[in-house]
């Protein structure tokens, strides 16, 4: 019989990666109050590829780097943010790397401008594998801070 308890302890903030999107490191808030993950995008646009809906988007993962990405749209649905505001968001599925563990998760694309963390990791991504210790942070290493400018630093 296997132990059903989570085996990896994470802090309330951690460094995560999105390997399928070529984003090796992002600062993320671990938020068990949120159901899904949210990724800050600077811009997003919709298009069709072979008749299938896709989304293009720009992210600033840190160090002044800006990356333009694209992914198939998995879903589009209403989300209620922490302030109680409702809005329709695009969802995609991709791999999330947290504490050396990779799993496929659902991520919605959001405008998190003004938030301290470009990524929010919700409880569905944590379920069964992770336990959160809210007294700790960056247990598994730090990610670069997001630049306030999109220009590379000398």
From TrEMBL:
Alphabetical list of Pfam families matching this protein: Zn_protease (PF05618)
The Retropepsin-like aspartic endopeptidase domain covers 9-141
Superkingdom of origin: Bacteria
The name under which this protein is listed is Ribosomal protein S6 modification protein
Q: Which organism is it from?
A: Cognatilysobacter xinjiangensis
């Amino acid at each position: 019989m296997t132990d059903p308890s989570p085996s990896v302890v994470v802090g309330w903030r951690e460094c995560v990666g999105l390997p399928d999107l070529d984003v090796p490191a992002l600062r993320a808030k671990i938020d068990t109050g949120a159901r899904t993950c949210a990724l800050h995008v600077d811009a997003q646009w919709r298009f069709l590829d072979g008749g299938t809906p896709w989304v293009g988007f720009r992210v600033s993962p840190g160090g002044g780097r800006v990356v333009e990405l694209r992914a198939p749209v998995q879903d589009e649905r209403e989300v209620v943010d922490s302030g109680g505001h409702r809005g329709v968001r695009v969802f995609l599925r991709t791999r999330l790397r947290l504490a050396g563990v990779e799993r496929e998760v659902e991520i919605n694309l959001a405008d998190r401008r003004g938030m301290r963390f470009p990524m929010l990791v919700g409880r569905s991504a944590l379920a069964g594998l992770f336990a959160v210790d809210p007294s700790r942070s960056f247990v598994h290493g730090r990610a670069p801070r997001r630049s306030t400018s999109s220009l590379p630093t000398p």
